[in-house]
Write a structure and sequence with these properties.
387 residues, four-stranded antiparallel beta sheet, 4% helix, Carboxy-cis,cis-muconate cyclase, Lactonase_7-beta_prop, 6-phosphogluconolactonase activity, signal, Haem_d1_sf
């Protein structure tokens, strides 16, 4: 018979050999670009702490609420939602006032590059326009054309045409534009710089499609879109034909999960949507829900069954999360809260399961991000992107 002490020793030794050693955690710094009305900032996240590294005033009455970074020229393109200018400036300077501005349509709220970053599209929520910019060379972008979406598909609703996003499909030949005011998804031909709207699909009245994303699975393409007014997420197959692509509706459900409604159904407004590079995990920001904190919802797409399954939601540390962005490894989700105690937060993401951490592991106070004299009750961060 073994003595108890010997049994304990052998058991502990066996356990030690079965458990792999834990490697020391190496501190990695993640940099983000942040847009606030009247100010643009950069910040670094190291482990659990943010530090502002640079900031520049953009002037009173300005709101650079969407930006795109071109790595090959170290250029940031920023659009003033309250005006009509797109300004190019170097990332290391953040000097918007002395940057290279160009005039486009009013009320643009979204910018997106094509594959080689020689073209950039602006969605004019305030003007019903799609701006097409030449960004092939450094300096100010060159406006090639502005396409009025009301010509092909005028809205019959009270809001009018309100394009809120413009996203290239995986081939780069087509552009999908959620028209929030018209309750439509528009398809524009991006070949040969045409950008003519050639097709559209209608959603239910007062759906308000805001932001979407593409999912690629073998030889099939899907599109998922979050609707601001109905707080529904819709899944489509994006089918190609000789006459151009078309949408085939597959499913819809609440952005809060099956049969779940927000606490305040009057104010709630789904916002950003982000598809992970694994073409499986989808994240949607639920805004103005009536709770003390809003949340990010996680959905999982099954390519075999084409089912979209709600996997849970996590708080954002504030209210009205307008913008979300991955770091390069997609292990962190950055969030901006327009209101609440934390203006920018970071949430862990498991690359294997796609699940998000139960709460943000790092954050910056909203008041630390505002220009001097700004009222935190009315002004908060609008945009964040890892750089």
């Amino acid at each position: 018979m073994m003595l108890p002490r010997l049994i304990t020793f052998l058991a502990l030794n066996s356990m030690a050999s079965a458990v792999p050693s834990v490697m020391p955690r190496i501190a990695v710094t993640h940099s983000v670009l942040i847009g606030v009305p009247g100010q643009i900032l950069t910040a670094d996240l190291t482990e659990t702490s943010f530090k502002i590294t640079n900031k520049a005033s953009t002037g009173a009455g300005s709101d650079y609420s969407w930006m795109r970074y071109k790595n090959s020229t170290d250029t940031v393109y920023a659009v003033n939602e309250y005006g009509s200018e797109v300004t190019a400036f170097k990332l290391d300077h953040l000097d918007v006032k002395n940057g290279n501005p160009a005039t486009g349509s009013a009320g643009v709220v979204f910018l997106e590059f094509n594959k080689d970053q020689t073209r950039m599209i602006g969605a004019g929520y305030g003007s019903s326009m799609l701006d097409v910019w030449d960004t092939s060379v450094a300096g100010a972008p060159k406006l090639l054309k502005s396409v009025n979406v009301t010509i092909s598909y005028p809205s019959s609703g009270p809001l009018g045409n309100k394009p809120h996003q413009a996203l290239f499909d995986p081939t780069g030949d087509w552009l999908v534009v959620p028209d929030l005011g018209a309750d439509r998804l528009l398809i524009a031909d991006a070949k040969a710089d045409s950008y003519k709207v050639i097709n559209a699909v209608s959603l239910k009245a007062e759906s308000g499609p805001r932001h979407g994303g593409f999912i690629k699975s073998d030889d099939r393409t899907f599109y998922v879109v979050a609707c601001e007014l109905s707080n529904q997420v819709h899944l489509y197959e994006f089918k190609y034909s000789d006459n151009g692509p078309e949408f085939v509706h597959l499913a819809e459900q609440s952005t809060y999960g099956p049969d779940i409604k927000p606490k305040n159904t009057t104010s709630a407004a789904a916002g950003a949507l982000l598809v992970a590079s694994n073409n499986r995990d989808i994240y949607i920001s639920n805004r103005l829900s009536g709770d003390t904190e809003d949340n990010i919802a996680h959905f999982i797409f099954d390519a075999k069954t084409t089912n979209l399954t709600f996997a849970g939601s996590v708080p954002t540390g504030g209210v009205n999360p307008r913008s979300i962005s991955f770091d390069a490894s997609e292990s962190i989700l950055f969030v901006t809260n327009v209101a609440g105690p934390l203006g920018v937060t970071a949430i862990n993401r498991c690359a294997a399961s796609g699940h998000l951490g139960a709460k943000p592991f790092a954050g910056m106070k909203l008041t630390d991000l505002l220009p001097d004299g700004a009222d935190p009750a009315t002004v908060g961060p609008q945009f964040v992107a890892a750089i």
